[in-house]
Structure formats: structure tokens, C-alpha cells
Amino acid sequence: MKHITKISLWLALLGLTAINSQAQVVIGSWQTGQSEGWLDNSDQLPITDPSNTNKYSFVKAGVPGYQYSLQITDPGYNTDLYINLTTLGGEPAGFEDNAWLTFTFSVPAWTNGGYSQIANVLLNAQGFYGGMEGNDWVNTVCKGNTGANYNNGSQPNYYFYNGIAMQTQVVSIDYSSYVSQIQSAGAGWIEVSFTENNGGGAPPYYFLNNVVLSTAPFGIDAASPPPTMGGQPAKPELRIFAGSTANTYDRAEIDTAPDGDESWIGSGHYPVTYSFTLLDFPVAPPMQCQIFLIPEGSLGSTPYTGNEYVDYNAPNELWLEINGMQANADGSSGYNAQVAWKVGAPNTNPNNQALTPGNGVAPSGIYANQGNQSPVGTWTLKFTGPADGTLTPPGVNPLPFHISDPNLATDFASPVLAVFGLQPNSGGGEGTYIDYASISIAGTANPISENFTSEAPGNTIESSGLWDTSDSAGAAPIQLVTTETPLWVSWTLPAIGWGLGESPYLPITQPPGYIYSSPNGVGSFVLPEQFNGYSDSPVNVNQGGTNWTLIPSDCLPSNEFPTLTNAYFQLVSPPPGN
Questions:
Q1: Whether residue 431 is found in the same domain as residue 512
Q2: CA dihedral defined by 354, 359, 364, 368, rounded to 10 degrees?
């Protein structure tokens, strides 16, 4: 393992144009595996529909700045991808309030000839049809690998040859001249479509990222502060982000593997415990952390995988719910907690309280923290019998509970799904995170235990075989951090057309993309991958308005040159080439 004696962060954003997130509208990010309203032109079905899986996929393509890209696979000349903005709720107004459509168009490294291009980007509205097509690519600006572009550099196009590296560019189209025409036609709907064209031995697929509406080119709006960078050491742990911005109730969670039996009923012996240790908790009320215990037999035809609302849909459930509250006097998060259950009540939250009033538990059955008690530490839900047990928050004496369900043995019979995770419950919680040190279940038919602070390098949350992430709003919010990833670098979004650059030296004396062959004192911002021969890349996760990049140790200068113990980071536009 490489030993990093010092890591320096240079967090200046030189020459970054101001960004206004109020006007800027992202209509296609594709970082969570969702269609986000985009359809296939031929069958009018979402791109995530099973009938379209041969054409659309979400891949780790290696496009700088993005963990995932939308891959469109269709050889030749085709109009595949389109969106009706009317279906997105408020986006037609967002279209009319803005003036530029921006997207990132990329193609893979290749070993053959050929070409790949965006032939048309069309606007289709009630009483209007127009856009960029054929030789009529006007009022368009591009940056990145634009050397092969058509129409005076405005139409995105790539050529290929044996050994060419990945090519990527950001394309911005000024559609402002069309807005008045669309408005005068009284458009009740507005569609955007993409037509691609490839051939001559080129790859039959390409990548799209970050389709954005804004008031200025490259997803930028003119009168607001720029995005900011930050950094923090990355410790071995399981970090779960409240990453979705689609719904404040979206869950980010991990489940025990399907058909695992985690019921306390009929275990044959007691106690049965469900326990986890939190390393931090944000001050973002009413941020929620929870355990859901869901008897699979109560679900009927409701799926218990691939369903982030399985707890809500389930007729029967018991939960431990921890809600973050206002900050304590010492700055830590306050909280309240409850153990509650429901039976025969699908599409509701549990509302039968189980905690016994007293010892800080209100008559309502809710425990509120005392003084500077915080949620950080070990939580244990212990069953001493089928209907009785205790909840032990960090630093608190055990709080007794009782489940007064006369049919408990059948209502919560095996198998039971155990779900651990969080949900933001407010816009203020989106993008925050909770770090777990460990999770364990003891005394059930299928006991499990995992210490996330001692994972082997290279492990992911799936490596142990204990966990399923399909009930999470997305896989990206679930990040297992090991010793091989020593650093988080973050920046606020949008940052379209910008990518992370890294230099072993200051001052910067060479333009981005310099090739380091020796520790020679030259400062240039390069892709972090350059320091491992492009065999490994940082992990980018876009979470609630912030991009978090987990830097592997082999993406630091010391991996290639052991005497170089500093690393300086900056956003660079366009992103450094490889």
C-alpha cells in the first residue's frame, strides 16, 4: 500500500463563470438509473422499459465528472432519445425562462476507423418544429474534443482511428430565437429529441450526460456565486448519502439479502438484537435514519426488491425511526426516536407506538434526547421475547417496549426483511450523509455482522453477499470506503463543462493535460488517472446538489512517483484530456 505522508488541497476556482441554480434546470442527469422522463422515439416507452434495455443502459463509461453515463446503442442514423417537457411538471416554464440547451456528448476509445455525430437536436412543440439539423447548426458553441466538428465547429462530430482515446465535448445550443415562436403558437407541449449518426466501423453507441437548460452557455447562469470545492479525509466506513432530489422521502438503504430470515419470531432463543453504529449524523432536521423489519409474507404481490417504498407499501411492519432535530448546545444533532408497528395497513407508516412512557419517553411513545445526547454511537433494538424488548440509544439506559398485537406470531412470521438506511424528509437534508461503522443482527435464523471500518481494499457493499441495494432510490448513494481511497473531494453543482484536475506541484506552469514522466517540478492539472496509467478512476457521486469524488490512492502522484507526497486539486474547463 502506498503511504501518503501529506495531501494538499488547492480549492481555488480560477476564472469560473458564475452559476445560478434557480434558473438552471437539469432535465437529464442519469446518475440514479432512472429514466427521468426520457422516452424512446420508436415505441414511446421509457428508456428504462424492459423492451428498451438493448438500446439504453447506464454505464461507468469514464466520462470525466460523471460516475454514470447514458449509453445509447443503435448503429446508423436514428432518432432515438426524446423527452416531452410537459410531463415533468413545471419544465415548460423552465424551458421558456432559459435560453440554452447544454449536453455532454462522448464516445469511447476505439481501435478502428469511422465517425460518430449528433446529427440533429430538434424542438417539436404545438405549432412549431425546428432546431439544429443538417447544415443548419447555428448559434451553437462547443468545448472539449471539437477538432472534427462540422459546420464551423458547431455540430458535434468525432472521427476514429486505431488507438484513439475517449473523446468528449460539451455542446450548448442557443434556442432563445425559438421561444417567442413557440409561445405565439400557444404551445401546450414541448419536446426535445436527439438524432445520432455513426458508421464506417465506428462504435455503434455513444454516451450522453447532463442535459441542462440555462440562461447562458454550458449550463451557466449569469448572476450568482460560483460553485465551491471542499475536501475531507476519507475513513473506512459505509457512507450512505441522502442523494436523491426527486423526492424528499426517497430512501437510500441496504436490505438483508432476499429470502434471508431476520425475524425475531420463532427464533428459538432470545435475545434477538438488531444493532448499528453511526459515526456521524447531520444537523438537518427532520433527517431520518431507520431500521425497517418487514414480514415478506404480508406483501402479497408487492415486490420486496427493486421497490424503495416497500416499507410504506407493506401491510405489516415494525420500525425503529430516528429523526434528527435542531442542534444541541455543543453543535451535535438532537434527535427523537420511536419503535412503532402496523398490521393490515398498506401505504401508511407504522402508527402503533411500542416504547413504554417514562425515562425520557413521552406519553406519545417518542423518546427525545436529553442535553447533548446525539444519535452518534451504537443503537441496539433488543427483543427479549416475541412482544417485548428494549431500545438502547447511544449513552442512554435501555428503554423498554411492548408490541400489543394479539396475532404477533403470524403477523410477523418468517421470513422478515431487515432494511437499514435513511431518508432526508426535507430539501435541507438532500445531499447530506450518515456514516456507518457496523451493522449486526444476532439471534435470528440468519445472523449477520459486518464491520465497515475493516473492509479489504477493493470491496464494495455487495462483496460480503449480505446486502441488496435494489430497494434504494439509487445505487450511487451507497459508498463503501476502504483504506485504498484516502480522500473525498467535493464541489457544488452545476459545474457543467468542468472536470477535476490534479497536480503534484504549484505553481501551475503548463496547460492542462501535461504528461508526467518524472518528478520534474512542472505544475499542470491532469486527470487523476494519469498517475496509474488510466487503470483506475475516481468514483464520482452526484448527491443533492454536490458532487463527491472519492480519490483512490493510486490516483495520487505518489502512486507513480513515491517522492511526490502533495496533491493539488482544481476544477478545470474543459476537463483535462488523457
A1: no
A2: -100
Q: Does the residue 90 lie in any domain?
A: yes
Nearest alpha carbon to residue 236 among 436, 1, 402: 436
Other Cβ atoms less than 10 A from the Cβ of 134: the count is 10
Using an 8 Å Cβ cutoff, are 498 and 16 in contact? yes
Domain range for 508 is 487-572
CATH number at residue 81: 2.60.120.260
Say if residue 285 is in the same domain as residue 400: yes
> β-strand 367-368 against 333-342: which pairing, if any?
antiparallel
Please report whether residue 55 resides in a domain.
yes
Residue 557 and residue 455 share a domain: no
Cα–Cα distance for residue pair 77/306, rounded to 1 Å: 34
Q: Which of 477, 511, 546 is the last residue of a domain?
A: 477
Checking if the pLDDT of 89 tops 60, the result is no
Question: What secondary structure does DSSP assign to 294-341, as a single string?
Answer: EEGGGGTTS-SSS-TTHHHH-SSEEEEEEEEEEEPTTSSEEEEEEEEE
Q: Which residue has the cell 438524432?
A: 195
Contacts of 229 (CB under 8 A, 6+ apart): 9, 11, 13, 489, 490, 491, 569, 570, 571
The 10s digit of each residue's pLDDT in 503-520 is: 999 999 998 888 999 999
pTM of the model: 0.72
CA-to-CA dists, residue 368 to 198, 327, 335, 352, angstroms? 62, 13, 6, 18
CA distance 155 to 132: 8
**Amino acid (1-letter code) at residue 4:** I
Instruction: Classify residue 423 as exposed, middle or buried by CB count within 10 Å of its CB (0-12, 13-18, 19+).
Output: buried
Asked if 218 contacts 170 with a C-beta cutoff of 8 angstroms, the reply is: yes
Q: With a cut of 70, say whether residue 240 has pLDDT above it.
A: yes
* Cα distance between residue 262 and residue 257, in whole Å: 10
Q: Are 523 and 447 in the same domain?
A: no
Q: Is residue 130 part of a domain?
A: yes
Alpha helices in 406-519 (DSSP H): 408-411
What is the C-alpha separation between 289 and 374, in angstroms, rounded?
A: 13
157 shares its domain with 295: no
Q: Indicate if the pLDDT at residue 22 is higher than 80.
A: no
Residue 241 pLDDT more than 50?
yes
- By CB neighbour count within 10 A (0-12 exposed, 13-18 middle, 19+ buried), where does 577 fall? middle
The tally of domains found in the chain comes to 3
Cα dihedral 461, 428, 379, 488 sign: positive
In the structure grid, which three cell numbers stand for residue 288, read together? 431520518
Note whether residue 49 is domain-resident: yes
